[in-house]
Structure formats: structure tokens, C-alpha cells
Amino acid sequence: MLRRCIARSPVSSLACSLLVFLVACATSSPTAPTRSGGTGSGSQSGPAPDPTDPTTLPPPAPAPPVSSGPTASDRLASAINGAMIGAIVGSFGGPIGAAAGAGAMMVYAAITGDVPLQGGGRSHRGGSGGGSYPGSGSESDREHDIDQQIQDQTQRQASLESEIQQELKRQEELMKQIDQADAARQAAQPGGAAGTAGGSAKPAAGAQGAPDAADLAKQADPRVAALAPKDRDLPLSIFDEQRVRIPKGTWGNDHDLDVIKRSLDADRDGKPEEIRYYDAATGVILRKEEDRNYDGVMDAWNTYDHGILVQRILAGANGKPDTWETYKNGRLALREVDRDGDGVKDAFYRYEGDSLVEERYDSNNDGKIDLVVRYKDRHRVSSEEDRDRDGRMDTWTTFGLANGKEVVTRIELDKKGRGKPDTFETYAQENGKTVLVKREEDVNGDGVIDVTSIYKDGKLVRREVSDPSLVPL
User: Fold this and answer.
1) pLDDT tens-digit profile of 19-28?
2) How many CA atoms lie within 13 A of 173 on its CB side?
């Protein structure tokens, strides 16, 4: 109970120390010496003494020794030992608890000559009879007991600190694992950078092995040609097998196909999660259908050529196909996407080798491309855009690199709607910002620059006009 009390707080330590003082004072009050009521242990022969004759009465028995209590040196030694024990006990409550415990135990020990919390007993120095007060025996025994208590407390603190450090280390490792898992999960989510891929990038589904965060990030980067997803190597015994004939034109095939159909219905709900079709004669896979979200409806269709994946069609949330992927040499070569789910392809991504080289967009679904972005080494180098959506490109932008970032270096505009640029703007980097430094204009459309404007800090500082007829502008 005492240990629980003093371990709570500094204030509790002081209160518990005072409680020890009061209880000890109450229990250590010396017992009053008592005299024997008898006449002695022996008997004498002869006539009975006459109580009226003093000469015949036996001499009085000596009085029992009375304890003189602890001496000043006893009190001093007890006070020092009490202060040490009080500090040790009170240290559970911090510095304040240690000070309070030391003070209370010192006062108590000085008054009573008793060192609290020590076992054993010791008689007062006045003699062996009479009252006695608790003690620990010899001075060396007391010192040994105190040293042992200090060592025990130090060991307990060291053990506690070790447990705390181990727990902190375990929590730190756990947080690292969580951070790594979150990074891998975010990297694997679809996403696009500044006008790229339109969020259509998807990690390779069903790929064998467990890719790390860097691999997942690379696969999710729309400027990197994704590897063709690999089929899981599953035992044939888990499939239901039957031989069927696929009519001409069902898969775009130019003749009937004799195939082995293997279906996997893992949850036995009558709706297979995966169906694979193999050529009956060669055993080479021709086609695979998947229910990726296990809702009972197929939402992915793979086509193979000589057992190698060449095309993949994916359905969106509405169950309708919205992504068409073409693979070449084991990598993505073309991705076509229906971004708004209206059944019309409106974004096209072309890859060469392992990198994206071109994007094309039809923003208003009129069947005409209104934005083209070209890449080199996975960086934008140029773009052209039909800003007014009249079917003709009117803005041409050139990009460069500054400190590893893509920046605009030149913009050409067709402001007159002639189908060719008539305004040329040059940009530069100043204090980390892209600013206009020069604008050249072909006002009359003859292919010759008529007006040149010079800018500094984004503000016009000089204008040169080659055709006086254009003044004032």
C-alpha cells in the first residue's frame, strides 16, 4: 500500500511520508513500566513478621530499571538514516517527493530515535528491561540494509528505463513500417503529372512478387511505360475445365476457335472470378477474363498472341470499358482512355521503349484533338493547343529545364486566327520565377516581325517598331 501511495505524484509522496510519521509515532509510544504485585519468588521459614514492627519487615525489593530512551547520538544517527530512507522512498514521486520524504523521516527519527521501515528491534541503552524502540541492530547492519535498498531501487529504475527504451524503439519501428506502407500505397494509386495520363495509370495487377515502394512509384508514373501484368501461376486443379467452340468474330477472330475453357469460382457463388481460354491443340493461352472487384461481373479482358499479352481492356466503375491498353515487347505501348465515361475515347498516350513520348486530348468530345504534349527523356519539350476549340491549333509552347524543373521558354500565338503564329514570346528564369523578357509581333501577317517589346522584371522597358505606319500602337 505504501509503495502504491508514494508512486503516484510528489504531493502524494509528501502526504504518504507524513502518514508514515503519524502512524510510527502512534505505534512507537513507550510502554509504561509495571511493577509485580507479588511478594517474591521464594519463601522464608520462621515466624510471620509483625507488620507493626519495622525491624521484622523484609528489605524492599529493588525497583525495575527504567529505560532512559535513545541518547543524543542515537537520535542523530537515526535522523541521518531516516532522511536517507525517506529520500529513497520519496524518489518515486520525483525531486519534490524525495525532499518531502527525507524531511518527514528525519524529523520522525530524530524525535523517536527509530529508523522507520527497518526490521528487527533494539533495547534502549538504559538496560535490557523496560520499554524498547525498533531498530536494525548494529550500525554496520543498518548501513548494509540502506545500501541494499539503494541497489534494489537503482536496479528497478534501470530495468524500467530499459523497458521504456525497448517500447520506444518498437513504436519507432512500427511507425517506419506504417510510413513505408503508406508511401507504397500512395505511389501505387493512379495519378498524373501536369497534363499527363489523366489519372489513368494503374499498377500492374496480378504481378508476381511484392514490389517495393520505388517499383510501385515507377509503375504508377504515367511517363514510364508499365510492364505487362503477369498472370498468377495457379494449379490447374482449382479450375473447372470444359471444351468449347468460339464462333467467328466473337473476339475479332476470323474463324471458329476450338478452346479449353478453365473457370475459377473460388467462393462457389456460381460466378467465376477468372476465366482462361487455351488453344485446344497447342495449350497456349488465348484470352483471359477477370472480375477484379468480385462483384460477379467481368471487368478486365486480356488478349494474347502466342501466349504473350498484347491487349488489355479495363472497365470503370459503371461496368463499361474505359481503358484500352496495347503492349509491345512486354511493355505498354499505347493507352486510350474514356475519361468522362461517355463511351468515347478522349485521351491517348503513346510510349516508346520505357517512356511516354506523346499525349493527345479531345477535351470537348468533338472528335478533334485540341491538345498535344510531346516528351523526351520523360520531360515535356513542347505542346500545341487549340484554345478556342475551333478545330485549329493556336498556341505552341516550348519547355526547358531549370534546376530539374520543367519551365516555359517560348510561346507562339496565333492571335489573328490565320492558322499560323503571329506573336512570339520569350521567357526566362529570374529569382526562381518564369518571367517574360521579349515579345515579337507580326502585326500585318507578312511573316516579318513588326514590333519588338523588351521587358525587365516582367515590366515593359523598351519597344521597337520597324513599320512607322504602326505608330502609335
Assistant:
1) 444 444 444 4
2) 6
